Structures are given as structure tokens and as C-alpha cells.
Amino acid sequence: MLELRGAGTNEKGDIKITITPERAQQIFIEYPVVKRAYDENVPDPLSPVDFWTRYLSSKLFDRNQASSRSAAAQHSIKDDPIFDKYLQKEDDGDEPLHQRAPPSTLLIDLNATHEDHGETGNSKDFTMKAGGLRSTLPLIRKFNEHSTNVLDAGLQPSKRQRTDDADELYYSQLDMEDLRGPKNDTGIELGLQANSQILDSGNSENGTENGQRSEPVDTRALAGTLRSWHNNLSKFTPGKKLVEDAFTSLSQNVAERVNVKSRKNNLPEDLLEAMGNLQTATAEFLRQFWSALYDDKDPTNERAKKMASYLATTYGKIAPMMTAARNQGHDPQTVRDAFTPTLDAVNKALAIHKARTLA
């Protein structure tokens, strides 16, 4: 725990303690009440030097020390109107003032039956109850809180045990991202090559279009054209070549449709089902990969790396299907051709992931 020790004495015999900015930050982290007192009293009415001088000689400083001797010496320290109002109640009750959240909340703990079976069953076990000596309780709990802070400092924020109240703790478990409303997406910026030329060409085209639209229209000539138009569609005779080309195109389209419907599906049902499942799973991995690749909430791209590892196994899953088709007397190339679009998408995703990893 953080202990402030003297580094010598001055001419008057007072103990000299140096408070560096780094040491002050450590004190603020270890004792949030000191941080609150500093923010509320510096620079008015106390300067930083006066603040630390009065703090080191106050009851609040002795209360924060990890020693039972400092607690006993509080009775001989003079009152301080500024720091005494930040003194908290002595944590020597049967229950600690700062209750820790349960290891597993009641929302997910299936073994938590004491809430609805309180009147029956065995009584609680108090054989390991701390505080046989009441004066040691504050010191023990102070060491426990410090140990928790040390362990939490080495964990990621998502793995730290929440110390909020029960409502916020339960709400964090019920608050799912899929249940939230749509958010304004800024979109993904495309890295276009020679984008300045594209913009310039677009502006020139827009200018040309605007120029064409700005030309005046002769309404009288347009009205005269409409009056001189006659309904001669009944006398219209299309060219022979145009009719033959249209008929040929329609005939080929019908023949192709009939050929597809009459073609027998020679692959077994179990193989087709396995191919469909692999196609569905790969498409979902691709969707997850692209959504995670540009996710600002995941700077390490862990989810994208995980999806890329799944996509890399696609070839290994297609090979057994081709072998099964060959063993059953079918052309394995048929299976490979069916996955060609999917494999092209997988190759594209893996190539981009590799380029971003090497960059």
C-alpha cells in the first residue's frame, strides 16, 4: 500500500515529505476522497503547498494510513475544518461499507436459491467471520480493498469485477447490442486511386449536364411538332431482321429454361445438404468478418482475426465433399464449381486481412 515516509527533517525538527506530481497521482488513485478534497479546495481557498501541508497533519491522512498505530494517534491530532468534513465513518461494522458484487449475479446463477428459500434450510455459516477484534476490522478491509485494486489494475476493463450498484450491474447484462436502435453510421471511406481526377471528371460532367439543362426550350416548335403528329402505328412495318433476331433470342431463352428443369440432379441428398450447410456457414463468417474489419470499437481486430481463421478452413471442408462425390461415381469438379463464387469471396477477404496485418 501507498505509505508516505519522511525524507529527513528541517531546521525546526519537522519531518520533510516530498510530494511529486507522480506521488500525488498515486494518492488520488489510492484515496479518491483526497482527490475530491483537492478538486474542491485548490486553488481556492488553499494553494497546492498549503493543501498537502494541512493534509499531512490532518486526521484524514492518519485515517488513510495502513497502521493501527495511526488510528490510535487520531485522538491527539487537532481538528481541521476543511479535511474533517471528508472523514468517513469507521468501517468496523458487521458488514463492510463498500459491498462487493457477487461473483455471479442472481440473473445467471442457477444455484442461488437463498433469495426464495430464506425461511427454510440451514443457517448461514459464520465460522470464518472476520473481526473477532473490532479494532482490526478497518485495517483488514483496507488491505482487502487495496489487494482488489492491485489485481484489477492488471486486468482488462471488460474482465474487472463491477462494483456498481445492483441495478446498473443487472442492466449491463440485459443491455444487448442487438436490441438497440439503429445508429448513424459514418460509412466506410473508400481508398480510391486518382480520386482527384474522378472528382474533376464528375464536376465536368455535372457542368455539362447543367449546361444542357440550362438551354432554353422553344415551346412553340414543340407544340407544332405535337400538332403535326398522326397516329400511323397501324401502318408501321418492322424490318425482317429485327423480327428474326427477337424470335431467336426468345427461343434460346425458352430452350435454356427447359434444359435446366429437365436436367437431373445426380448428387446425393446428404451431400447436397452438407454443401448447403457449408455455404450458409461461410456466408455468415464472411458477413461477420467484413463487419468486424472496420469496427471502431475493436482496435485490435480480434474478432476479424477469429473470422479469418474460420474462413481459412473453407478449402479443407470442401475437399472431403469432392472425395465423397468421386467415391459415389460423380464428377468432383461439380462440387468445386458450385463453391466457386464463395471461394472467390473467401480469397478476397483473406487477401485484404493479410495486407492489413502486414501493414
Automatic annotation (TrEMBL):
Q: Which spans does this entry mark as compositional bias, Polar residues?
A: 198-213
Q: What is the protein name stated in its UniProt record?
A: Tfb1 protein
Q: Where is the BSD domain?
A: 11-63
What GO cellular component is one of the record's annotations? transcription factor TFIIH core complex
Q: Do you know which Pfam families this protein is assigned to?
A: BSD (PF03909)
Q: Which InterPro entries match?
A: BSD_dom (IPR005607), Tfb1/GTF2H1 (IPR027079)
What are the GO BP annotations of this UniProt entry? DNA-templated transcription; nucleotide-excision repair
Q: Write down the SMART domains for this protein, in alphabetical order.
A: BSD
Coiled-coil spans in chain: none
Top-rank taxon, per record: Eukaryota
Q: Give the residue ranges for region: Disordered.
A: 198-217
Q: What gene does this protein come from?
A: tfb1
